[in-house]
Specification:
Blueprint: E1 3-6, H1 17-32, E2 36-39, H2 53-63, E3 70-71, H3 87-100, E4 103-106, H4 110-122, H5 138-147, E5 151-154, E6 161-166, E7 170-175, E8 183-185, H6 193-203, E9 208-212, H7 219-229, E10 235-239, H8 259-264, H9 269-280, H10 297-303, H11 318-331, H12 334-348, H13 352-355, H14 359-362, H15 366-369, H16 379-383, H17 404-413, H18 420-434, H19 438-450, H20 458-465, H21 467-478
Parallel strand pairs: 1-2, 2-3, 9-10
Antiparallel strand pairs: 4-5, 5-8, 6-7
Helix pairs in contact: 1-9, 1-10, 6-7, 9-11, 17-18, 17-21
The chain binds glutamic acid (GLU).
Length: about 475
């Protein structure tokens, strides 16, 4: 039974877009193999906890449709799924390692460690614990334990190598002499990431640890722990981290990283997931119905193999994602798009009229703007005028001769309902008589009814507004 997991730490504003990618591949891989996808909350770094972060992370996973089969909210047979509720376990396993001689108590003060770090930095050496507490006598340990604070550290062998196989990167080997005697249990009784992740991945029977490259250098410490406990290693697969165009790790300063930003900016979750999969995975051997870059979750679940993960991802390209989002909008059926736009406006629009539009109000406007939309945010500037008169402020094109009153007269004289033919003919005739370009008159009409020089098809817009509203808007401006 395949069991995968993501293990987000609630130390940021929301789910990081890099974690969306990791969640996606873990979930897709689990589904493909009829396995389970677990979400475990790693909240052991108490100093970095952000209030509300866990709820937002879980909310964002749900928005993307990446809900876990097991986790803090749905429960499951391997719970609890929040590390702060599993402290006794970590303690037990840390003590087991001490007993086996693979870990030891360390009583060094923060001041001593700080000085050590400074000395090492000054000497140009990698900061590492110097093993001062490795060989204390039992008597020393007992008296120090009675006196106060201590941590438990991993006893990394002085020599030799630690190796493991990575599905994406092949065999990886680290020199033990370069691996730090990592703290496993802190003085506050909380485990560090390294101990907790290994204990939990083992107890939760995780078969495949699929995560980003940034965790590769932690893996030898984990492998040592698995070996010391006598546990079977999971399969490791370290996928690419998302990068800025300058190849640096995707960061807040250069790119939007929080899942909520994508929602707010009118991206569709399916489009973002499709883009992330394309970015981090080679699809050359996939069978995709239309053969292109656009594919559904079902296609991912049918085709994805861990071997498809790229070792290094291409740069995250917001423009390409935007293009893809537009393609998704166009593929969507109008009823669904109507619901999505209505929900979006309710949540994010600041315009009181647009906020209250129900799907039934929006329905007939969708064909007018669907082709032009790339994000749900585009609805308001493109179609807002269909529901609200444009502000007069937009009409101050000074010094230009206005033909609005003539246009209004022509339109008013037409038989109702206006047909496209009669309407166009009327305005063309007016242009001819006045020696002006018909295009200019159509533009005047467009600006008058919409407050904008670009927008949906003019005839369709007029039809949507109806004869009375169109004339009323002309009247306000033309007098
Ligand atoms: N808690 C780690 C994180 O914040 C989990 C890393 C892992 O997947 O092992 O992403």
């Amino acid at each position: 039974m395949v069991r995968t997991r993501i293990a987000p730490s609630p130390t940021g504003e929301d789910l990081h877009i890099g974690n969306v990618y990791t969640a996606l591949i873990n979930r897709v891989f689990a589904k493909k193999n009829k396995g389970k996808f677990v979400v475990r909350i790693e909240d052991t770094d108490r100093s970095r906890l952000v209030l509300g972060s866990e709820e937002r992370i879980l909310g964002s996973l749900a928005w993307f449709g990446l809900e876990p089969d097991e986790g803090t909210q749905v429960g499951g047979p391997y719970g609890p799924y929040r590390q702060s509720e599993r402290l006794e376990l970590y303690k037990k396993y840390a003590l087991e390692l001490v007993e086996k001689g693979h870990a030891y108590y360390c009583f060094c003060t923060p001041q001593r460690l700080d000085e050590l770090r400074k000395e090492q930095a000054a000497a140009g050496r990698q900061p590492m614990y110097d093993g001062a507490c490795r060989n204390l006598s039992t008597a020393e340990i007992l008296s120090k334990l009675a006196a106060g604070n201590c941590v438990i550290r991993l006893k990394v062998p002085d020599s030799g190598q630690t190796s493991f196989d990575d599905v994406v990167r092949g065999k990886i080997t680290f020199e033990n002499s370069l691996i730090d005697d990592q703290i496993l249990l802190k003085s506050d009784g909380f485990p560090t990431y390294h101990l907790a992740v290994v204990v939990d991945d083992h107890l939760m029977e995780i078969t495949h640890v699929i995560r980003a490259e940034e965790w590769l250098s932690s893996t030898p410490k984990h492998v040592l722990l698995y070996n010391f406990f006598g546990w079977t290693l999971p399969v490791f697969a370290h996928g690419p981290i998302l990068r800025n165009p300058d190849r640096s790790k995707l960061s807040k300063r250069k790119n939007p990283v929080w899942a909520s930003w994508y929602k707010e900016q009118g991206f569709l979750p399916e489009a973002v997931l499709n883009y992330l999969m394309l970015l981090g995975c080679s699809i050359s051997n996939w069978s995709i119905p239309d053969g292109g870059e656009i594919f559904s979750m079902e296609v991912m679940e049918r085709n994805f193999k861990l071997e498809d993960l790229r070792p290094v991802g291409p740069a995250f390209d917001l423009k390409k994602l935007e293009w893809m989002n537009g393609e998704y909008i166009r593929k969507m059926d109008n009823a669904q798009l109507t619901i999505d736009i209505s929900n979006y406006l309710k949540e994010f629009s600041r315009n009181l009229i647009l906020q209250t539009l129900e799907p039934s109000d929006l329905q007939t406007s969708i064909p007018l703007i669907k082709e032009r939309m790339r994000r749900l945010t585009d609805f308001e500037p493109l179609a807002g005028f269909l529901f609200e008169r444009p502000s007069l402020f937009n009409h101050s094109e000074q010094g230009k001769e206005s033909h609005l009153s003539q246009i209004r007269d022509v339109l008013e004289s037409l038989a109702r309902p206006w047909s496209k033919d009669s309407w166009e003919k009327g305005i063309r005739q007016l242009a001819e008589e006045g020696g002006v370009k018909a295009g200019d008159l159509f533009m005047e009409l467009r600006v008058a009814i919409s407050g904008n020089k670009v927008g949906p098809d003019l005839f369709e817009s007029v039809k949507f507004l109806g004869e009375e509203e169109t004339l009323a808007r002309l009247k306000i401006l033309a007098g």
